[in-house]
Amino acid sequence: MMTIFAIPKRRYTGITSIRTIIFLCSLMIAGCHTSKARKVILVTSHVDLKSYVHSAVGANGHRETQVFFPLLQIYDALGNLVYVGHDSRQNSKALEGLADGTDKMAPVTGASSLTQVINETPAFSSEGTTIAHTNRPTIISVFLEDCHACSIQEEALDKTQEHLQDQGINLLIVRVSKSS
Q1: Contact (Cβ atoms closer than 8 angstroms) between residue 94 and residue 74
Q2: Would you place residue 145 in the very low, low, confident or very high pLDDT band (cuts 50, 70, 90)?
Q3: Within a 10 A sphere around the Cβ of 123, how many other Cβ atoms?
Q4: DSSP assignment of the chain
Q5: CA count, 13 A, side-chain hemisphere, 51
Q6: Distances in whole angstroms, Cα of residue 24 to Cα of each of 10, 29, 91
Q7: Residue 59 CA to chain centroid, in angstroms?
Q8: What does the radius of gyration of the chain's CA atoms come to, in whole angstroms?
Q9: Beta pairing partners, 138
Q10: So what's the pLDDT on residue 63?
Q11: What pLDDT does residue 58 have?
Q12: Residue 138 CB partners (closer than 8 Å, separation 6+)
């Protein structure tokens, strides 16, 4: 015995399905385009203290340059420095305060641009051109191994890293070791 089911015919069923498929495909294409546009750069570099100090002296041009840890630098999408700090608790607050982005932050007068800093920092030489031309806010965070104050900033960065990347903020992390 054979059972036959009657499927009611609907007018425009084929056209609706085609429109639906085209609409879904366009959403997929737009979705893929959006995810590519949100791609951020995350670079973690390990350097020894001697190399780090040498690059800081070279960048500054003064032999009496002082180096502080931790260091947090925040650059806006135009590459202007909008925050610099060495106090881990203030740096932690600055990281948490980036929920609104860098648009409301004023540039630090007389500071080097992101492009200049990247060009003067050997740790970022391979990604430098890419980073400098992303037109995205960028954070440079420097930690010294076995540094309690650095660990406070590092924990804050760990907590906020995913959110910062979701906002399209590049992260450049330098871990400085005491041994060479």
Answers
A1: yes
A2: very high
A3: 23
A4: ----PPPPP-TTHHHHHHHHHHHHHHHHHHHHHHHHHT---EEEEEEEHHHHHHHHHHHH--TT----SSEEEEE-TTS-EEEEE--HHHHHHHHHGGGG-STTPPPPTTPPPHHHHHHH-GGGTTTHHHHHTS-S-EEEEEEETT-HHHHHHHHHHHHHHHHHHHTT-EEEEEEEES--
A5: 16
A6: 21, 9, 44
A7: 23
A8: 24
A9: 75, 170
A10: 62
A11: 57
A12: 74, 75, 79, 114, 131, 169, 170, 171, 172
Q: What angle do CA 127, 131, 136 make, to 5 degrees?
A: 160
Tokens representing 100?
């609104």
Q: Which residue is it, tokens 């995205």?
A: 136
Residue found by looking up tokens 């840890």 in the block: 69
Q: At 13, list the tokens.
A: 């069923």
Please check the confidence at residue 150 and state whether its pLDDT lies above 50.
Answer: yes
* Pairwise CA distance, residues 57 & 55, whole Å: 5
> Residue 76 pLDDT > 80, yes or no?
yes
Among all chains, which residue has been given the structure tokens 């084929």? Answer: 14
Indicate the angle between helix axes 88-96 and 148-166, nearest 10 degrees.
Answer: 10
pLDDT digit string (tens) for 25-70? Answer: 333 333 333 233 457 888 888 888 888 887 776 555 556 668 889 9
User: Two tokens at 47?
Assistant: 């350097």
Q: What pTM does this model have?
A: 0.73
